TrEMBL record:
<keyword id="KW-1133">Transmembrane helix</keyword>
<dbReference type="InterPro" id="IPR043428">
    <property type="entry name" value="LivM-like"/>
</dbReference>
<feature type="transmembrane region" description="Helical">
    <location>
        <begin position="177"/>
        <end position="204"/>
    </location>
</feature>
<dbReference type="Pfam" id="PF02653">
    <property type="entry name" value="BPD_transp_2"/>
</dbReference>
<keyword id="KW-0472">Membrane</keyword>
<keyword id="KW-0812">Transmembrane</keyword>
<protein>
    <submittedName>
        <fullName>Branched-chain amino acid ABC transporter permease</fullName>
    </submittedName>
</protein>
<feature type="transmembrane region" description="Helical">
    <location>
        <begin position="51"/>
        <end position="70"/>
    </location>
</feature>
<dbReference type="InterPro" id="IPR001851">
    <property type="entry name" value="ABC_transp_permease"/>
</dbReference>
<feature type="transmembrane region" description="Helical">
    <location>
        <begin position="225"/>
        <end position="243"/>
    </location>
</feature>
<feature type="transmembrane region" description="Helical">
    <location>
        <begin position="263"/>
        <end position="288"/>
    </location>
</feature>
<keyword id="KW-1003">Cell membrane</keyword>
<feature type="transmembrane region" description="Helical">
    <location>
        <begin position="28"/>
        <end position="45"/>
    </location>
</feature>
<feature type="transmembrane region" description="Helical">
    <location>
        <begin position="300"/>
        <end position="320"/>
    </location>
</feature>
<feature type="transmembrane region" description="Helical">
    <location>
        <begin position="101"/>
        <end position="121"/>
    </location>
</feature>
<feature type="transmembrane region" description="Helical">
    <location>
        <begin position="128"/>
        <end position="149"/>
    </location>
</feature>
Amino acid sequence: MLQSQVSTPAMQPVAWIRRRNRWTIFEVLFWLATLLPFCFFPAYLNLASQIAITALFALSVDLVLGYAGIVTLGHAMFFGLGAFTVGILSSRYGWGEPISGLFLAALVAGLAGFASSFLIVRVQHLALIMVTLGLGLLTFELGNALSWLTGGTDGLTGISTWNIFGYFRFDLWGYTAYSYSLIVLFLCFLLCRVIVNSSFGLALRGIRENVKRMPAIGSDYRWHLRVVYTISAAIAGVAGALLTQTTNTVTLEVLSFQRSADVVVMLILGGTGRLYGAIVGAVIFLIARDQLAGINPQYWFLWIGLLLMFVVMFMPKGILGGLARLVRREE
């Protein structure tokens, strides 16, 4: 009995972390599948780039919602800060270099995330939802009030993104946009994968399950939450910057509540606390929206709602959670 207890993953965190960091054949196949649009769906590369950007945004939310238990309805604040950082640099100051723009957007959004994290860690449950929602709405109104800087309801004009490394030009067909967005998504995914499959990630899971017990084992849960919230904000800022760079447009819509709500729906569809759930949810949501809007432009959201109800009723842990349960049953 004692040996069986010692051999469990809960008693051997180092072994658990090593096992979680190994790549599986399914993960390799998943990322290879992201290259299929280049070969089979070249007409949809612009849509594919938007999916990659949205998946990155969903990934940033999953980092705090799925692993740390921070329910947020205002994460578009950081997405919008990243988008406007790049847009203002280009339209107001003539700087359109994409790579440095990504880093600066991550810095601005990360600083905003760090500043707001001191308020986030003080509240829980319903109060947490209200605080994040309030911060998002305040940022939206601030952007509208600063119309001389943000362009207000008209958005910014005159945005121009330079060639990547001075060579790769953003074309109308979306080859460069999708390649660029996919590479950034993959690099940020690697960062998130390392974070959640580490001792820090284990601490986040402990906070999500029972935040009151963490101080008893010597864990400074507020510090952990501030760090992960800052990282999540920075990644969301990168996603917003990608949107501006690949479309050369930015409006107040990037700060809207609808964008925050949509990404939560994507996580519910794909499954929270799985990383890949954020990507799968974004793919399903955006492809369904694109196809359903073409069929019925007025009532496409009705079908999205029905899909969401179906997933919640029959797969409460999302599509990936439902698939994982089926695999365990077969075993």
